[in-house]
Design goal:
The complex is a heterodimer. Chain A is mainly α. Chain A has 6 helices and no strands. A two-stranded antiparallel ribbon of chain B has the order 1-2. By secondary structure, chain B is mainly alpha-helical. In chain B, helix 4 packs antiparallel against helix 13. Chain B has one domain. Chain B is globular and about 65 Å long. The chains are: A mainly alpha, B mainly alpha. At the A-B interface, helix 2, helix 3, helix 4, helix 5 and helix 6 of A face helix 8, helix 9, helix 17, helix 18 and helix 19 of B.
Chain lengths: 167, 527
């Protein structure tokens, strides 16, 4: 982070500014949505009362968190204030998030075994040192072990192989 | 009084020693220990991943197994932190301070051996405390009305969020967020849907498993993928023989062990102060009363056994409010309570009288499980040490599978797998913004009951907030909340910057103990 003179600039560079901002946004969303439910009276509270109140509290907390960055000294700069880690792992993050999605897709249309294989395979690709061969072996081992544990032993009602064509 | 407790305990042993309960307890401690040893897998992730396995079981077997997983993971985590200097679980952060230097001196085995012993002592004390204090607490709690329950929950939530890791205000924000997430779904009283956006799958609320696995599974994996340094197995060559302590070691660790145990059990009585704080306080106390405080951090056995004993004693003690009041002290307890709720058991003061098999069976199984762990950890240390070498690149993809299938098995619904992805991504963003997601779980589990009791309290008082300070017991809880907030503000304004990140870095454990000095007060009401 490059040292800057403008106070707004300085604010923008701080993690807690965004942390507080996120809470303010979330709180606003919760509170605004909460007002569409019946709030009721204090004695007979409706479904909207508590969530709306929580949203307002969250907004206040968010303001406090963001405001704390204004008062804190300049020593807060540095590693701890970076939002992204030093080496962002976009590919690995994508793999980890894609792995359950693959599980949903393959599990729904082809069954537990293909779903498991796809899930482990995609997740394992995220590692920097992953090789195709190692990944396939790992996915196969986990599939065999996992399917036998969950399908035979724990009786999870999900077909091992299926074919729901057409969709 | 004592005789009833002992009869109940006898009954509990009867439950816990039933062959299939015994088996599940054993599976629990074994798997917990195994997964706990693996670097990067703390008790929270372990319990969340194993939670779905218990759905098909009877409630007693399920809770026995999950309890076993929890303290098994604690034992396992100690191995990881002493030999590798990697605290997978925050309470072990202080164990590293002296444990790893001991390993470097080639005395890692001794540290491990005495840790197992100290853990056992601490746990036994915590269990004893649980046997005698829980019924007392229940007797008091049965007279609580919704007003008292509500303010007690408020205290628990505040303590759980401000005394945990990281900045207190962020902890409170997370708790509020958790409370909100708990309100998603059909409103219990009026039946109207909240925040479901037309998705019928959300009518029953957000799935606890999806939340736990998203926050402590996927978000954690995203945080550590490709960031984990290759494990240094240079010092991990420990065998059974190395574990035997010398007579001098035993003598030196005797009193620290007991001091740690007592500190841990005191910390357990304060709502919200979990094992992390207990271990920090224990270490700081031990350092303060030591004749040579400057040697701490260079590999003193006192610095290992005292925090470990205190962690285990406080973990067992944390079960007291969880089981007898239904108010969990930290996220691990919240998860266990959630598991009970999934089994259809309502937590609260009625639990012990309505389900004596669960409570007393659990108590008895703690002892059995702890003995099993000593037997597992001492002779088999070589195997556990070998497990340390499993690389992360094999670990997390396999864990991803457990996450997916576990969430699916909760309701046999793919929608929840999608839920876990969304929660995981959100959890990772929170992590990067410096939030610790553990209080979310606390708020989430307590949320619905908090709302219910709040509504009832307001109904009884005819919408008058003053009821919370007019009823004496409730007023005490509210006063404690204010003291808590006041002391946090005070320490913050005083410029205690060190308390911001005390647990994550192995730096100075100075922050939390000084904070806690002011919180010694809350000991009284919990008794």
């Amino acid at each position: 982070m490059r040292p800057s003179t403008s106070p707004l600039r300085e604010l923008m560079g701080k993690r807690d500014f965004y942390a507080g901002g996120l809470m303010i946004l979330l709180g606003l969303f919760i509170a605004v949505k909460g007002t569409t439910y019946r709030a009721g009276t204090l004695m007979h509270m409706g479904p909207g009362f508590l969530p709306t109140a929580l949203g307002v509290i969250l907004v206040l907390l968010g303001i406090a968190i963001a405001a704390a960055t204004l008062t804190a000294g300049s020593d807060q700069h540095g590693e701890g204030q970076n939002i992204l880690p030093e080496h962002p792992q976009w590919f690995a993050w994508g793999c980890i998030l894609a792995s359950p999605v693959a599980f949903i897709f393959f599990g729904r249309y082809f069954g537990m075994a293909p779903g498991t294989f796809a899930c482990v395979f995609i997740a394992a690709l995220g590692d920097k040192t992953a090789t195709w061969r190692g990944t396939v072996i790992l996915a196969t081992v986990v599939t065999i072990f996992g399917v036998s544990l969950f399908s035979y032993f724990l009786q999870v009602p999900m077909p091992i192989f299926t074919w729901r064509g057409g969709l | 009084m004592i005789t009833t407790a002992l009869t109940d305990l006898w009954y509990g042993f009867g439950v816990a020693l039933e062959p299939h309960n015994l088996m599940f307890c054993f599976i629990g401690v074994l798997v917990g220990n195994m997964v706990g040893v693996l670097p990067g897998m703390g008790p929270l992730a372990t319990i969340s991943i194993l939670l779905p396995l218990t759905f098909g079981m009877k409630p007693v077997a399920a809770i026995l197994m999950l309890g076993g997983v929890m303290y098994g993971a604690q034992y396992g985590g100690a191995i990881c932190s002493i030999l590798l200097n990697l605290p997978c679980h925050p309470p072990h952060a202080v164990t590293c301070l002296d444990g790893f230097p001991m390993t470097k001196q080639g005395r890692g085995g001794v540290a491990l051996g005495l840790t197992v012993f100290a853990s056992f002592v601490g746990a036994s004390w915590g269990i004893t405390e649980m046997i005698f204090l829980s019924p007392l607490l229940v007797r008091a709690a049965l007279q609580f009305g919704p007003t008292e329950v509500c303010s007690l929950m408020l205290l628990g939530l505040l303590a759980g969020s401000t005394l945990a890791r990281g900045s207190p205000i962020k902890g409170v924000a997370m708790t509020v967020l958790g409370l909100f997430l708990g309100s998603v779904g059909t409103d219990l009283e009026t039946g109207s849907e909240r925040y479901t956006f037309g998705m019928t799958e959300l009518d029953d609320g957000i799935e606890l498993i999806a939340l736990a696995l998203g926050l402590f599974g996927i978000a954690e994996f995203m945080n550590s993928v490709n960031q984990v340094a290759p494990i240094n197995t240079k010092y991990t060559n420990v065998t059974f023989k190395d574990m035997r302590p010398t007579k001098a070691d035993l003598k030196r660790s005797f009193f620290p062990m007991w001091r740690g145990t007592i500190i841990g059990s005191l910390c357990a009585l304060i709502p919200g102060t979990g094992p992390t704080i207990a271990s920090f306080v224990a270490y700081a106390t031990e350092k303060k009363i030591s004749k040579h405080p400057e040697l701490f951090g260079t590999g003193l056995i006192e610095g290992v056994v005292c925090p470990e004993a205190s962690t285990h004693s406080s973990v067992q003690g944390d079960f007291i409010p969880t089981m007898s009041l239904g108010i969990p002290g930290d996220a691990v307890m919240a998860l266990l309570l959630g598991a009970l709720m999934i089994q259809g058991i309502v937590p609260g003061p009625q639990l012990i009288s309505q389900h004596p098999d669960i409570f007393w069976g659990l108590v008895a199984s703690f002892w059995i499980g702890n003995i099993m762990l000593v037997l597992l950890n001492v002779p088999l240390i070589g195997i556990w040490v070998k497990m340390l070498a499993i690389p992360y690149k094999y670990l997390y993809p396999s864990a991803m599978f457990f996450v997916c299938i576990g969430v699916y098995a909760a309701n046999n619904d793919f929608f929840q797998v999608g839920e876990v992805v969304a929660i995981g991504l959100f959890g990772y963003i929170l992590l990067r913004l410096g939030y610790h997601p553990a209080p979310i779980l606390l708020g989430f589990v307590l949320g619905p009951r908090f709302e219910e009791n709040f509504r009832r309290a307001m109904l009884i008082s005819r919408g008058d907030f003053a009821v919370f300070v007019e009823r004496p017991i409730s007023a005490v809880f509210v006063a404690l909340c204010l003291i808590l907030i006041g002391s946090q503000l005070y320490f913050r304004l005083k410029g205690a910057k060190a308390d911001l990140e005390p647990a994550a870095e192995s730096g100075t454990p100075a922050g939390i103990p000084t904070q806690l000095a002011a919180h010694r007060v809350p000991v009284t009401p919990a008794e």
